[in-house]
Structure prediction request, 432 residues.
Amino acid sequence: MSDYKTQRGDTSWFTHDRLGLFIHWGLYSLPARHEWVRNNENIPTETYDANYFGRFDPDHFDPDAWADAAFRAGMKYVVVTAKHHEGFCLWDTQHSDYKATNTPARRDLLKPLLEAFRKRGLRTGIYYSLIDWHHPDFLLDAHIGPYRAHPEREQMNIGRVPSRYAHYMRDQLTELLTQYGDIDVLWCDFSYPKPDGSGKGHADWESDELLKTVRSLRPTIIMNDRLNLDYGWDMKTPEQYQPRAWLEHAGKRVVWEACQTLSGSWGYHRDENTFKSVEMLLQMLIDTVSKGGNLLLNVGPTSRGEFDQRALRSLAGIGSWMQSHSRSIYGCTAAPTDVPTPTDCRLTYNPETHRLYVHCFAWPFKYLWLDGLRERVKYAQFLHDGSEIVLEAKDWTAVQARETAGEANSLLLELPTLKPDVTVPVLELFLD
Ligand code: GLC
Prediction:
Protein backbone atom coordinates (compact mmCIF):
# COMPACT_ATOMS: atom_id res chain seq x y z
CA MET A 1 0.00 0.00 0.00
CA SER A 2 1.49 3.27 -1.04
CA ASP A 3 1.53 6.13 1.37
CA TYR A 4 -0.95 8.86 0.48
CA LYS A 5 1.62 11.51 1.27
CA THR A 6 4.07 10.32 -1.32
CA GLN A 7 1.61 8.95 -3.87
CA ARG A 8 1.84 10.87 -7.15
CA GLY A 9 -0.83 11.58 -9.72
CA ASP A 10 -0.42 10.33 -13.25
CA THR A 11 0.75 13.38 -15.19
CA SER A 12 2.01 11.51 -18.24
CA TRP A 13 -1.08 12.31 -20.36
CA PHE A 14 -1.27 15.78 -18.87
CA THR A 15 2.19 16.97 -19.93
CA HIS A 16 1.47 15.61 -23.39
CA ASP A 17 -1.94 17.21 -23.86
CA ARG A 18 -1.02 20.75 -22.78
CA LEU A 19 -4.32 22.55 -23.36
CA GLY A 20 -7.44 22.31 -21.26
CA LEU A 21 -10.73 24.13 -20.75
CA PHE A 22 -11.67 25.61 -17.40
CA ILE A 23 -15.40 26.14 -16.83
CA HIS A 24 -16.71 28.43 -14.11
CA TRP A 25 -20.45 28.01 -13.90
CA GLY A 26 -22.71 28.68 -10.98
CA LEU A 27 -25.38 31.03 -9.65
CA TYR A 28 -23.04 33.97 -10.25
CA SER A 29 -23.78 33.63 -13.96
CA LEU A 30 -27.11 35.40 -13.27
CA PRO A 31 -25.77 38.63 -11.77
CA ALA A 32 -23.09 38.29 -14.46
CA ARG A 33 -20.60 40.56 -12.74
CA HIS A 34 -17.86 38.23 -11.51
CA GLU A 35 -17.99 34.95 -9.60
CA TRP A 36 -16.97 36.88 -6.49
CA VAL A 37 -20.03 39.12 -6.73
CA ARG A 38 -21.43 37.85 -3.45
CA ASN A 39 -18.25 38.86 -1.69
CA ASN A 40 -17.66 42.06 -3.64
CA GLU A 41 -21.14 43.43 -2.99
CA ASN A 42 -21.64 41.85 0.46
CA ILE A 43 -24.85 40.20 -0.67
CA PRO A 44 -26.75 38.55 2.21
CA THR A 45 -27.82 34.92 1.87
CA GLU A 46 -31.54 35.69 1.55
CA THR A 47 -31.04 38.13 -1.30
CA TYR A 48 -28.59 35.94 -3.17
CA ASP A 49 -30.80 32.91 -2.91
CA ALA A 50 -34.05 34.67 -3.75
CA ASN A 51 -32.58 36.32 -6.82
CA TYR A 52 -30.28 33.67 -8.16
CA PHE A 53 -30.84 30.25 -6.57
CA GLY A 54 -34.55 30.70 -7.13
CA ARG A 55 -34.04 31.70 -10.76
CA PHE A 56 -31.24 29.49 -12.02
CA ASP A 57 -32.80 28.04 -15.15
CA PRO A 58 -30.29 27.16 -17.88
CA ASP A 59 -32.85 26.37 -20.53
CA HIS A 60 -30.31 26.39 -23.36
CA PHE A 61 -27.81 24.10 -21.65
CA ASP A 62 -26.41 21.68 -24.21
CA PRO A 63 -23.43 19.72 -22.86
CA ASP A 64 -22.58 18.39 -26.33
CA ALA A 65 -22.26 21.93 -27.64
CA TRP A 66 -19.76 22.78 -24.88
CA ALA A 67 -17.78 19.63 -25.48
CA ASP A 68 -17.78 20.33 -29.18
CA ALA A 69 -16.49 23.88 -28.74
CA ALA A 70 -13.66 22.63 -26.53
CA PHE A 71 -12.81 19.77 -28.85
CA ARG A 72 -12.68 22.04 -31.87
CA ALA A 73 -10.38 24.42 -30.01
CA GLY A 74 -7.91 21.57 -29.62
CA MET A 75 -8.51 21.19 -25.90
CA LYS A 76 -7.82 17.79 -24.42
CA TYR A 77 -9.28 18.04 -20.96
CA VAL A 78 -11.79 20.02 -19.00
CA VAL A 79 -11.99 21.18 -15.39
CA VAL A 80 -15.49 22.14 -14.19
CA THR A 81 -16.49 24.01 -11.04
CA ALA A 82 -18.62 21.44 -9.26
CA LYS A 83 -18.82 23.99 -6.44
CA HIS A 84 -17.35 27.49 -6.31
CA HIS A 85 -16.94 29.83 -3.32
CA GLU A 86 -20.66 30.62 -3.26
CA GLY A 87 -21.21 27.02 -2.12
CA PHE A 88 -23.73 26.09 -4.81
CA CYS A 89 -23.42 22.52 -6.12
CA LEU A 90 -23.95 21.70 -9.77
CA TRP A 91 -24.52 18.06 -8.96
CA ASP A 92 -27.20 16.17 -7.04
CA THR A 93 -25.25 15.91 -3.79
CA GLN A 94 -26.81 14.03 -0.90
CA HIS A 95 -25.02 16.28 1.59
CA SER A 96 -26.67 19.60 0.82
CA ASP A 97 -29.90 21.14 -0.44
CA TYR A 98 -27.97 23.93 -2.08
CA LYS A 99 -27.83 22.22 -5.42
CA ALA A 100 -28.98 22.43 -9.02
CA THR A 101 -31.76 19.89 -8.53
CA ASN A 102 -33.50 22.31 -6.17
CA THR A 103 -33.39 25.26 -8.58
CA PRO A 104 -35.66 25.67 -11.62
CA ALA A 105 -32.95 23.67 -13.46
CA ARG A 106 -34.31 20.64 -11.61
CA ARG A 107 -31.49 18.32 -12.59
CA ASP A 108 -27.92 17.28 -12.02
CA LEU A 109 -25.91 19.46 -14.40
CA LEU A 110 -22.50 17.98 -13.75
CA LYS A 111 -23.12 14.41 -14.83
CA PRO A 112 -24.26 15.11 -18.41
CA LEU A 113 -21.41 17.58 -18.77
CA LEU A 114 -18.73 15.10 -17.78
CA GLU A 115 -20.31 12.48 -20.00
CA ALA A 116 -20.41 14.81 -23.00
CA PHE A 117 -16.74 15.67 -22.60
CA ARG A 118 -15.72 12.06 -22.26
CA LYS A 119 -17.74 11.19 -25.34
CA ARG A 120 -15.64 13.74 -27.21
CA GLY A 121 -12.47 12.08 -25.93
CA LEU A 122 -11.58 14.73 -23.37
CA ARG A 123 -10.33 13.92 -19.91
CA THR A 124 -12.26 15.36 -17.00
CA GLY A 125 -11.36 17.30 -13.90
CA ILE A 126 -13.28 18.78 -11.02
CA TYR A 127 -12.77 22.14 -9.41
CA TYR A 128 -13.94 22.07 -5.81
CA SER A 129 -13.95 25.21 -3.69
CA LEU A 130 -12.56 24.85 -0.17
CA ILE A 131 -14.10 28.20 0.55
CA ASP A 132 -17.85 28.08 1.07
CA TRP A 133 -19.92 31.19 1.67
CA HIS A 134 -23.10 29.21 2.15
CA HIS A 135 -22.33 26.29 4.46
CA PRO A 136 -23.65 26.82 8.03
CA ASP A 137 -20.45 25.46 9.58
CA PHE A 138 -18.02 27.52 7.53
CA LEU A 139 -16.39 29.96 9.93
CA LEU A 140 -16.87 33.58 8.90
CA ASP A 141 -13.48 35.23 8.90
CA ALA A 142 -12.43 38.85 8.52
CA HIS A 143 -10.77 38.42 5.14
CA ILE A 144 -13.20 37.17 2.57
CA GLY A 145 -16.86 36.36 2.25
CA PRO A 146 -20.01 38.50 2.24
CA TYR A 147 -19.95 38.87 6.05
CA ARG A 148 -16.24 39.65 6.48
CA ALA A 149 -16.99 43.21 7.63
CA HIS A 150 -20.35 42.53 9.23
CA PRO A 151 -20.63 44.04 12.73
CA GLU A 152 -22.15 40.83 14.07
CA ARG A 153 -19.72 38.49 12.42
CA GLU A 154 -18.45 37.12 15.75
CA GLN A 155 -21.96 36.33 16.99
CA MET A 156 -22.84 34.78 13.67
CA ASN A 157 -20.04 32.31 14.23
CA ILE A 158 -21.60 30.93 17.38
CA GLY A 159 -22.62 27.33 16.81
CA ARG A 160 -20.53 26.90 13.68
CA VAL A 161 -18.40 23.75 13.87
CA PRO A 162 -15.49 23.90 11.41
CA SER A 163 -14.71 20.19 11.69
CA ARG A 164 -18.23 19.48 10.47
CA TYR A 165 -17.49 21.54 7.40
CA ALA A 166 -14.23 19.65 6.80
CA HIS A 167 -16.20 16.42 7.04
CA TYR A 168 -18.75 17.75 4.57
CA MET A 169 -15.97 18.40 2.06
CA ARG A 170 -14.68 14.85 2.37
CA ASP A 171 -18.20 13.50 1.94
CA GLN A 172 -18.77 15.56 -1.16
CA LEU A 173 -15.43 14.67 -2.67
CA THR A 174 -16.14 11.02 -2.00
CA GLU A 175 -19.40 11.40 -3.86
CA LEU A 176 -17.75 13.14 -6.79
CA LEU A 177 -14.91 10.67 -7.01
CA THR A 178 -17.08 7.58 -6.81
CA GLN A 179 -20.25 8.45 -8.70
CA TYR A 180 -19.05 10.63 -11.54
CA GLY A 181 -16.86 8.34 -13.59
CA ASP A 182 -13.12 8.60 -14.05
CA ILE A 183 -12.02 11.96 -12.78
CA ASP A 184 -8.42 12.73 -13.78
CA VAL A 185 -7.82 16.06 -12.06
CA LEU A 186 -8.90 17.52 -8.73
CA TRP A 187 -8.55 21.27 -8.42
CA CYS A 188 -9.15 22.42 -4.83
CA ASP A 189 -9.35 26.18 -4.30
CA PHE A 190 -7.91 27.87 -2.15
CA SER A 191 -6.07 28.55 1.11
CA TYR A 192 -5.30 31.94 2.62
CA PRO A 193 -3.35 31.36 5.81
CA LYS A 194 -2.36 34.47 7.78
CA PRO A 195 0.50 34.72 10.26
CA ASP A 196 -1.91 35.45 13.12
CA GLY A 197 -4.09 32.45 12.29
CA SER A 198 -7.01 34.57 11.13
CA GLY A 199 -7.03 33.19 7.59
CA LYS A 200 -7.70 29.64 6.48
CA GLY A 201 -5.36 26.80 5.66
CA HIS A 202 -4.65 23.12 6.13
CA ALA A 203 -5.90 23.02 9.73
CA ASP A 204 -9.28 24.45 8.72
CA TRP A 205 -9.73 22.18 5.71
CA GLU A 206 -8.19 19.18 7.50
CA SER A 207 -6.16 18.97 4.32
CA ASP A 208 -4.20 15.92 5.34
CA GLU A 209 -7.41 13.93 5.85
CA LEU A 210 -8.85 15.35 2.67
CA LEU A 211 -5.79 14.22 0.73
CA LYS A 212 -5.93 10.80 2.32
CA THR A 213 -9.58 10.43 1.28
CA VAL A 214 -8.92 11.55 -2.27
CA ARG A 215 -5.87 9.31 -2.74
CA SER A 216 -7.63 6.30 -1.28
CA LEU A 217 -10.40 6.69 -3.87
CA ARG A 218 -8.29 7.69 -6.85
CA PRO A 219 -4.60 7.10 -6.17
CA THR A 220 -3.33 8.58 -9.44
CA ILE A 221 -5.58 11.61 -9.72
CA ILE A 222 -3.69 14.84 -10.42
CA MET A 223 -3.93 17.11 -7.39
CA ASN A 224 -3.28 20.83 -7.55
CA ASP A 225 -1.33 22.76 -4.94
CA ARG A 226 -3.84 24.86 -3.00
CA LEU A 227 -4.49 22.73 0.09
CA ASN A 228 -1.73 24.51 2.01
CA LEU A 229 0.31 21.32 2.35
CA ASP A 230 3.92 20.97 1.31
CA TYR A 231 3.27 17.41 0.13
CA GLY A 232 0.64 15.60 -1.86
CA TRP A 233 0.40 17.95 -4.85
CA ASP A 234 1.28 17.13 -8.43
CA MET A 235 1.24 20.53 -10.07
CA LYS A 236 1.70 24.22 -9.46
CA THR A 237 -1.07 26.53 -10.60
CA PRO A 238 0.08 30.05 -11.48
CA GLU A 239 -3.07 32.14 -11.94
CA GLN A 240 -3.49 34.96 -14.46
CA TYR A 241 0.20 35.42 -15.06
CA GLN A 242 2.81 33.78 -17.25
CA PRO A 243 5.85 32.56 -15.29
CA ARG A 244 9.25 33.78 -16.48
CA ALA A 245 10.68 30.29 -16.69
CA TRP A 246 9.83 26.63 -16.04
CA LEU A 247 8.55 26.54 -12.47
CA GLU A 248 10.74 24.83 -9.92
CA HIS A 249 10.32 23.50 -6.42
CA ALA A 250 13.30 22.71 -4.22
CA GLY A 251 15.57 23.26 -7.20
CA LYS A 252 13.68 20.85 -9.47
CA ARG A 253 11.45 21.50 -12.44
CA VAL A 254 7.83 20.64 -11.64
CA VAL A 255 4.61 20.02 -13.54
CA TRP A 256 2.66 23.24 -13.81
CA GLU A 257 -0.47 24.65 -15.31
CA ALA A 258 -1.18 28.31 -15.93
CA CYS A 259 -4.84 29.24 -15.69
CA GLN A 260 -6.00 32.24 -17.63
CA THR A 261 -9.28 33.97 -18.38
CA LEU A 262 -10.45 35.00 -21.84
CA SER A 263 -11.49 38.31 -20.29
CA GLY A 264 -10.87 39.46 -16.75
CA SER A 265 -13.42 37.28 -14.96
CA TRP A 266 -13.84 33.53 -14.43
CA GLY A 267 -17.59 33.54 -14.08
CA TYR A 268 -19.68 35.01 -16.90
CA HIS A 269 -19.29 38.79 -16.82
CA ARG A 270 -21.53 40.60 -19.23
CA ASP A 271 -19.83 43.99 -19.12
CA GLU A 272 -16.23 42.82 -18.87
CA ASN A 273 -14.83 43.56 -22.29
CA THR A 274 -11.13 42.98 -21.92
CA PHE A 275 -11.23 39.89 -24.09
CA LYS A 276 -7.75 38.93 -25.19
CA SER A 277 -7.18 38.64 -28.91
CA VAL A 278 -6.81 35.19 -30.42
CA GLU A 279 -3.19 36.07 -31.17
CA MET A 280 -2.54 36.85 -27.52
CA LEU A 281 -4.24 33.66 -26.34
CA LEU A 282 -2.18 31.59 -28.74
CA GLN A 283 0.96 33.36 -27.64
CA MET A 284 0.07 32.49 -24.05
CA LEU A 285 -0.36 28.85 -24.96
CA ILE A 286 2.92 28.74 -26.86
CA ASP A 287 4.75 30.66 -24.15
CA THR A 288 3.45 28.16 -21.59
CA VAL A 289 4.57 25.09 -23.52
CA SER A 290 7.93 26.73 -24.25
CA LYS A 291 8.44 26.72 -20.46
CA GLY A 292 7.25 23.16 -19.96
CA GLY A 293 3.75 24.00 -18.72
CA ASN A 294 0.06 23.49 -19.49
CA LEU A 295 -2.59 26.10 -20.17
CA LEU A 296 -6.07 25.91 -18.70
CA LEU A 297 -8.17 28.48 -20.49
CA ASN A 298 -11.44 29.55 -18.93
CA VAL A 299 -14.96 30.09 -20.19
CA GLY A 300 -17.75 31.36 -17.96
CA PRO A 301 -21.04 30.16 -19.49
CA THR A 302 -24.19 32.28 -19.22
CA SER A 303 -27.10 31.59 -16.87
CA ARG A 304 -29.05 30.20 -19.82
CA GLY A 305 -26.35 27.62 -20.24
CA GLU A 306 -24.36 28.85 -23.22
CA PHE A 307 -20.88 30.02 -24.11
CA ASP A 308 -21.36 33.61 -25.21
CA GLN A 309 -20.33 34.76 -28.68
CA ARG A 310 -17.10 36.39 -27.49
CA ALA A 311 -15.94 33.15 -25.91
CA LEU A 312 -17.00 31.13 -28.93
CA ARG A 313 -15.04 33.43 -31.23
CA SER A 314 -11.92 33.04 -29.06
CA LEU A 315 -12.22 29.26 -29.04
CA ALA A 316 -12.85 29.11 -32.77
CA GLY A 317 -9.76 31.25 -33.42
CA ILE A 318 -7.63 29.00 -31.27
CA GLY A 319 -9.07 25.97 -33.03
CA SER A 320 -8.32 27.22 -36.47
CA TRP A 321 -4.65 27.72 -35.57
CA MET A 322 -4.48 24.40 -33.73
CA GLN A 323 -5.86 22.65 -36.79
CA SER A 324 -2.56 23.10 -38.58
CA HIS A 325 -0.20 23.76 -35.68
CA SER A 326 -1.04 21.38 -32.86
CA ARG A 327 2.12 19.43 -33.65
CA SER A 328 4.13 22.18 -31.98
CA ILE A 329 1.96 21.88 -28.84
CA TYR A 330 0.95 18.26 -28.16
CA GLY A 331 3.83 16.15 -26.91
CA CYS A 332 6.06 19.20 -26.79
CA THR A 333 7.99 20.86 -24.04
CA ALA A 334 10.79 23.39 -23.56
CA ALA A 335 13.69 23.24 -26.00
CA PRO A 336 16.95 21.68 -24.79
CA THR A 337 18.76 24.22 -22.63
CA ASP A 338 21.67 24.56 -25.06
CA VAL A 339 19.42 25.93 -27.79
CA PRO A 340 19.11 29.71 -27.51
CA THR A 341 15.78 31.36 -28.36
CA PRO A 342 15.92 33.74 -31.33
CA THR A 343 14.69 37.31 -30.87
CA ASP A 344 10.87 37.64 -30.69
CA CYS A 345 10.40 33.87 -30.76
CA ARG A 346 9.36 31.00 -28.50
CA LEU A 347 10.70 27.49 -28.92
CA THR A 348 9.00 24.21 -28.23
CA TYR A 349 10.49 20.79 -28.74
CA ASN A 350 9.22 17.28 -29.22
CA PRO A 351 11.72 14.96 -27.54
CA GLU A 352 10.36 11.92 -29.37
CA THR A 353 10.55 13.21 -32.92
CA HIS A 354 13.50 15.54 -32.23
CA ARG A 355 11.72 18.40 -33.90
CA LEU A 356 12.19 21.95 -32.79
CA TYR A 357 9.42 24.49 -33.30
CA VAL A 358 10.20 28.16 -33.74
CA HIS A 359 7.14 30.33 -33.11
CA CYS A 360 7.52 33.85 -34.49
CA PHE A 361 5.69 36.36 -32.28
CA ALA A 362 6.94 39.18 -34.50
CA TRP A 363 7.84 38.56 -38.12
CA PRO A 364 11.62 38.81 -38.73
CA PHE A 365 13.18 40.99 -41.40
CA LYS A 366 13.62 38.20 -43.90
CA TYR A 367 16.43 36.40 -42.05
CA LEU A 368 16.31 34.42 -38.87
CA TRP A 369 19.44 33.49 -36.93
CA LEU A 370 19.54 30.23 -35.04
CA ASP A 371 22.68 30.23 -32.96
CA GLY A 372 24.48 26.98 -32.39
CA LEU A 373 22.28 25.04 -34.79
CA ARG A 374 24.23 25.07 -38.05
CA GLU A 375 25.26 21.44 -37.81
CA ARG A 376 22.16 20.19 -36.07
CA VAL A 377 19.27 21.08 -38.37
CA LYS A 378 18.68 18.62 -41.20
CA TYR A 379 15.57 20.10 -42.72
CA ALA A 380 13.17 22.94 -42.12
CA GLN A 381 9.61 23.74 -43.15
CA PHE A 382 6.65 25.89 -42.28
CA LEU A 383 4.22 23.98 -40.17
CA HIS A 384 1.02 25.46 -41.63
CA ASP A 385 1.65 24.30 -45.21
CA GLY A 386 4.66 21.97 -45.01
CA SER A 387 6.63 24.13 -47.43
CA GLU A 388 10.40 23.91 -47.30
CA ILE A 389 12.51 26.63 -45.79
CA VAL A 390 15.88 26.55 -47.44
CA LEU A 391 18.66 26.01 -44.95
CA GLU A 392 21.61 28.35 -45.18
CA ALA A 393 20.42 31.35 -47.11
CA LYS A 394 22.99 32.03 -49.82
CA ASP A 395 21.93 35.06 -51.83
CA TRP A 396 24.20 38.11 -51.71
CA THR A 397 22.26 39.90 -49.01
CA ALA A 398 22.48 36.79 -46.84
CA VAL A 399 26.23 36.60 -47.40
CA GLN A 400 26.56 40.18 -46.21
CA ALA A 401 24.34 39.49 -43.25
CA ARG A 402 26.52 36.58 -42.29
CA GLU A 403 29.73 38.59 -42.69
CA THR A 404 28.52 41.26 -40.35
CA ALA A 405 27.06 38.86 -37.79
CA GLY A 406 29.98 36.65 -36.92
CA GLU A 407 29.07 33.54 -34.92
CA ALA A 408 30.33 30.67 -37.06
CA ASN A 409 27.95 28.02 -35.81
CA SER A 410 24.74 29.87 -36.40
CA LEU A 411 22.23 28.84 -39.00
CA LEU A 412 20.74 31.54 -41.17
CA LEU A 413 17.25 30.88 -42.46
CA GLU A 414 15.82 32.89 -45.28
CA LEU A 415 12.13 33.55 -44.83
CA PRO A 416 9.56 35.14 -47.11
CA THR A 417 9.51 38.91 -46.78
CA LEU A 418 5.90 38.92 -45.67
CA LYS A 419 4.48 37.00 -42.76
CA PRO A 420 2.46 34.00 -43.90
CA ASP A 421 -1.26 34.38 -43.42
CA VAL A 422 -1.48 32.56 -40.07
CA THR A 423 -1.86 34.08 -36.63
CA VAL A 424 1.44 32.79 -35.28
CA PRO A 425 3.77 31.28 -37.92
CA VAL A 426 5.74 28.23 -36.89
CA LEU A 427 8.95 26.84 -38.39
CA GLU A 428 9.45 23.14 -37.91
CA LEU A 429 13.12 22.14 -37.73
CA PHE A 430 14.20 18.52 -37.95
CA LEU A 431 17.16 18.01 -35.67
CA ASP A 432 19.65 15.17 -35.87
C1 GLC B 1 -9.15 32.14 -7.57
C2 GLC B 1 -10.49 32.74 -7.45
C3 GLC B 1 -11.46 32.13 -8.31
C4 GLC B 1 -11.08 31.31 -9.46
C5 GLC B 1 -9.74 30.68 -9.32
C6 GLC B 1 -9.20 30.12 -10.60
O1 GLC B 1 -8.56 31.63 -6.53
O2 GLC B 1 -10.92 32.80 -6.13
O3 GLC B 1 -12.63 32.81 -8.43
O4 GLC B 1 -11.91 30.24 -9.44
O5 GLC B 1 -8.85 31.42 -8.70
O6 GLC B 1 -7.86 29.85 -10.54
